[in-house]
Amino acid sequence: MRMRDPPGTFLPRNASARLRFSPGAEGKMAAPMSEGPPALEPGAAPYGNFPNYSRFHPPEGRVSLLPGGLLQSLFPAVARPLLGLDVGCNSGELSVALYRHLLGLQESKGCLDQPVAGKDLNLLCCDIDPVLIERAQQCSPFPASISFANLDIMDSSAREPILRSYLGRFGRSTFDIGFCMSVTMWIHLNHGDSGLMEFLSFLSSLCKYLLIEPQPWKCYRAAARRLRKLGRNDFDHFRSLAINGDMVERITQILMKDCAMELVCCFGSTSWDRSLLLFKSNGSNHEGGESSEQEQ
Ligand SMILES: C[S@@+](CC[C@H](N)C(=O)[O-])C[C@H]1O[C@@H](n2cnc3c(N)ncnc32)[C@H](O)[C@@H]1O
């Protein structure tokens, strides 16, 4: 399935070569080299769990790249509630912005608005940092539709009951869409190549669609450099990462070759020089999302 008329760059199934040369992915904007505010010690945020992350990497720069009516395009015939998983949600600002944007809700009108095109969206948003999750829970304007959970997504024994319990509330075993925004580098630095592969494989098995914003390699170098400046050792895995270089290209290849996903669209590049990519799973274990589904 292809979405109709989005403003992003559409790419064919085997499009990673073109992706490298698409204007959005090649955009040379004045992107910060780091993944955190200069004043914050990276040792204090070893997972990218920066407090106030959204102040220096505002959600609007990402959500504004997504076309209005995206959910309607992806799930034209689905009448049941759509389920989304936001991995590494920090304190929830991007999760809430995504929710509003995808449903066409105006911020000023809050939760009284009718969702666009009759779509009902529920989000499970998780983060490894309990303090960030507590703040997200306290500030959420949509507590009935957006759930926040403290979870290390790499801990399979912890994630399994949380995800199963959430999905079970809707009689489901998979999510319609996953969001992985500025998270891959932290998984990669903390869990190595095999951890990144396992993470991507897990997400592709769990989510029909995956919206992903990988950090470019220069951010890895900057994160390691900051750590060294503080007199600390590199991240455990930094020097041994064989998956390196063009991270958009590498992650695209992993998702397409190893995870049975296809690249649907590149929505362009943020002011931080990060590409926003939408993948779709070809796996058969998804309760899917397309014309055959009229589920309630
Ligand atoms: C750089 S922030 C991105 C926040 C948000 N997704 C955004 O783009 O605005 C990365 C987040 O991923 C979280 N994170 C890193 N490793 C994680 C893990 N193993 N499980 C869950 N969350 C994780 C961090 O705590 C942090 O809040």
Automatic annotation (TrEMBL):
Residues of the Bin3-type SAM domain: 68-284
EC top class named in words: transferase
Coiled coil: none
EC number(s) recorded for this UniProt protein: 2.1.1.-
Subcellular location: Cytoplasm
Role description: O-methyltransferase that specifically monomethylates 5'-monophosphate of cytoplasmic histidyl tRNA (tRNA(His)), acting as a capping enzyme by protecting tRNA(His) from cleavage by DICER1. Also able, with less efficiently, to methylate the 5' monophosphate of a subset of pre-miRNAs, acting as a negative regulator of miRNA processing. The 5' monophosphate of pre-miRNAs is recognized by DICER1 and is required for pre-miRNAs processing: methylation at this position reduces the processing of pre-miRNAs by DICER1.
The protein's name: RNA methyltransferase
Biological classification of the source: Eukaryota, Metazoa, Chordata, Craniata, Vertebrata
